Amino acid sequence: MSAWLRRPWVPTAIALAVIVALASARYDGFFSAAVLVNLLDDGAVLGLAALGATLVIASGGIDLAPGAMVALSSTLVASLLARGTSSPLAFAAAVLLGIALGAGAGALIDALELPAFIVTLGAMFLARGAALALHVESLPIRAPAWEAWSRVEVPLGAGLGLDLAAVVWLVLAIVAAAALRHSRTLRNALAIGGDERTAVLFGVPTLPTRTAVYALGAGCSALAGVAYTLYSGQGDSTAGVGLELDAIAAVVIGGTALSGGSASLLGTVLGVLLLGVLQTMLVFEGVPGAGWTRIALGALLLVFVVLRRGLAARVTA
């Protein structure tokens, strides 16, 4: 039993099941395929950003730029499409820009031994400023070719379909989970997050590893910006405010330790879904405003931190 509880995603799965059961008992139609599909569709932007945040945190780092990267990526896509650029090229340009900025941040952190907090804070200002320089206000996307992309769905039967962004999120989560087991770079990242000094003694190359991890993290955030354009139909330089905190919360709730050395991508997906369920419950309850959502998120995060500390103490006892 204790070995089973050591799996970091298990408490998240239990909490999700309990909350869904309680909500289903209270609200008619809550436990349905349509609600699940909506949760996945609505959670794609946060899910992609949280996926990148999981990799960075597992390496012992932190990234404060995902929200700003979403803004920059979405604004760049909208600007390029307005100039007649094809949709695939605009998407690729946004993701490649995110990868380049993330790689630069990772290289600075490692080569100059700078705090990740400060470097990614600078990257956050840089990305947000670049988004505002591209277009101050929201920029609607009216390109006919883009509209076809925004309507792509994977049919699930019974008249339901999963949006392209949600499919990309789930597929990337599976790929990343496999890469954590088989990719030398990501295994090196876990070693650095666990104990960097020991990792260096065993010959782990910190500069290319950290550069790659931050590049992957920023690339995921840029892809979240692309997903935002598909979801909202616009690029917005003010998008993603506070998204980095939601992503970190989902990662922690999912079981990835902030100290690094381990990662639970399944837990992160469950954490995103748990946050989505809480939001949906508040909608069903008719609670107005985003304030109660933030209160629920803060309370949930504190509960999980205390719960995990208690479980860790009990397992080691």
Write a structural description.
The chain is mostly helical and 317 residues long. Helix 4 packs antiparallel against helix 12 and helix 13 (243-253) runs parallel beside helix 15. The chain has a single domain (2-316), classed as Orthogonal Bundle (ABC transporter involved in vitamin B12 uptake, BtuC). The two termini are 14 Å apart. The chain is globular. Helices cover 74% and strands 4% of the residues. The model has no long low-confidence stretch (mean pLDDT 89). The protein is built from 15 helices and 4 strands. A hairpin with a 2-residue loop joins strand 2 (153-157) and strand 3.
Q: What keywords describe this structure?
A:
15 helices, single chain, two-stranded antiparallel ribbon, mainly alpha, 317 residues
Please sum up the structure shown.
The chain has 317 residues and is mainly alpha-helical. 74% of the residues lie in helices and 4% in strands. The chain has one domain (2-316): ABC transporter involved in vitamin B12 uptake, BtuC, CATH 1.10.3470.
| Number of alpha- plus pi-helical segments | 15
Q: How are the strands ordered across the major sheet?
A: 1-4
| Rg, Cα atoms, Å | 20 Å
CATH topology: ABC transporter involved in vitamin B12 uptake, BtuC
Strand percentage: under 5%
> What about the largest sheet?
2 strands, antiparallel
Q: Can you tell me the CATH class?
A: Mainly Alpha
Question: What is the 3D shape?
Answer: globular
Helix content: over 70%
Low-pLDDT sequence parts: none
> What structural category arises from helix and sheet content?
mainly alpha
| CATH architecture label name | Orthogonal Bundle
Rounded to the nearest angstrom, the distance between the terminal CA atoms is 14 Å
Question: Average pLDDT, to the nearest integer?
Answer: 89
Number of strands: 4
Tell me the number of structural domains.
1
What is the string of helix and strand elements? HHHHHHHEHEEHHHHEHHH
